[in-house]
Design a protein that fits this description.
The protein is an alpha+beta fold. It is built from 5 helices and 13 strands. The chain has helices at about 1-35, 135-140, 215-240, 250-275, 280-320, and strands spanning about 45, 50-55, 60-65, 75-80, 85-90, 90-95, 95, 100-110, 115-120, 120-125, 130-135, 145-155, 165-175. The strands form 3 sheets. It has a 5-stranded antiparallel β-sheet. The protein has a 5-stranded mixed β-sheet with strand order 4-13-12-8-9. A hairpin with a 2-residue loop joins β6 and β7 (about 95). α4 runs antiparallel to α5. The chain is rod-shaped, with a radius of gyration of 48 Å. Keywords: Endoplasmic reticulum, Membrane, Signal, Transmembrane, Transmembrane helix. Pfam families: Ribophorin_II_C. Its main location: endoplasmic reticulum. It is found in: Endoplasmic reticulum membrane.
Length: about 325
């Protein structure tokens, strides 16, 4: 029966292998027509008409110009403190209004190549986008910078292999102070950052530790802590304590172990005071405590049994005497 079962399994495996080999050419044949399919046409990104408006510090419109990309809508337009420029446009993807992944307004300094301030355009209803850039935003990004800034529009989207970059015109900022007191522009772009732009080291300042007490004071308190033990020894000596009544036999053995556990606990407390920490002391204390409790119980039980046996022997002796 085992041989028949093995032959049946071997036949099934051969059938499965032949079925897989027969299916492979079909997959290859079905994939060939897909390779001959025409490639998908790439999308084209563009911009509709552009409107540029200059606003005063109080929010009133000063001028508005409309035109196409790469037209000089602003020709070195002076931008005083508090003023800002608002650019409105409609991005197009294959001729239809769209929302590109990146749409921003850039103001590049002509005096400092690579130094540029940016403003992200926000989408509005109807597909239009608005980007505003003022003197406050430029100063926040570039510092107190004067001179002419080239204004351009930047668009990008994964659906379009080519982005859009076109000029709108230029702005003219008031010149900053000159001389040694003139504030330097903030060089935030990658072209001006040093290669090893390390962060400054942080120097931690710790509180000065409090003055400790003299060693004599510590020794005096140590003596006061040990004084009760010395008083106990003196009191036991005054009572006339001796080892003549120490139990013998099994009870004596358990009593020795019990007193050894107590001595080990005292030694553990001394080590905890000198060098050990609480995490390492607690497990040892629990183990020694359990050992001491067990040996103490055994010592008391053995001592009670020993006394009961002695009392029984004494009672039998009294009966015989009577």
């Amino acid at each position: 029966m085992r041989k028949i079962s093995c032959l049946i399994c071997l036949g099934l495996l051969l059938c499965i292998a032949q079925a897989q080999d027969a299916a492979e050419p079909e997959v290859q044949a079905s994939s060939e027509p897909a390779a001959d399919s025409p490639p998908k046409k790439a999308s084209v990104l563009g911009v509709d008409s552009i409107s540029v408006t200059v606003y005063a510090a109080d929010g009133k419109k000063e001028s508005t110009k409309k035109g196409k990309l790469d037209e000089a809508l602003l020709k070195a337009t002076a931008l005083r403190s508090g003023q800002y420029v608002e650019v409105s446009f409609t991005p197009l993807l294959d001729g239809a209004p769209a929302k590109p992944q990146q749409a921003m307004l850039a103001a590049a300094s002509k005096a400092y190549p690579g130094l540029t301030a940016y403003a992200v355009a926000k989408a509005q209803k109807g597909g239009s986008h608005v980007a505003s850039l003022g003197t406050a935003a430029i100063e926040k990004q570039l510092g107190s910078l004067g001179g002419e800034l080239a204004l351009s529009l930047l668009l990008g989207d994964p659906a379009a292999p080519l982005g859009v970059s076109g000029s709108i015109g230029s702005l003219l900022l008031p010149e900053a102070a000159t001389g040694s007191a003139a504030p330097k522009p903030k060089l935030l772009t990658a072209g001006h950052q040093p290669v090893n732009n390390f962060k400054p080291n942080i120097a931690h300042i710790f509180r000065t530790p409090d003055k400790r007490a003299p060693a004599v004071v510590s020794l005096a308190f140590t003596g006061l802590a040990l004084a009760p033990l010395a008083l106990l020894v003196l009191y036991l000596g005054a009572l006339g304590v001796n080892f003549a009544g120490f139990p013998s036999g099994t009870a004596g053995l358990w009593a020795l172990l019990f007193h050894g556990g107590i001595a080990a606990l005292l030694g553990l407390y001394a080590l905890f005071w000198l060098r050990l920490d609480l995490a390492s002391t607690l497990p040892a204390a629990l183990g020694l405590g359990a050992f001491t409790a067990l040996t103490g119980y055994k010592a008391l039980s053995a001592l009670s049994a020993q006394r009961a046996a002695e009392a029984k022997v004494a009672a039998v002796a009294v009966k015989k005497a009577n």
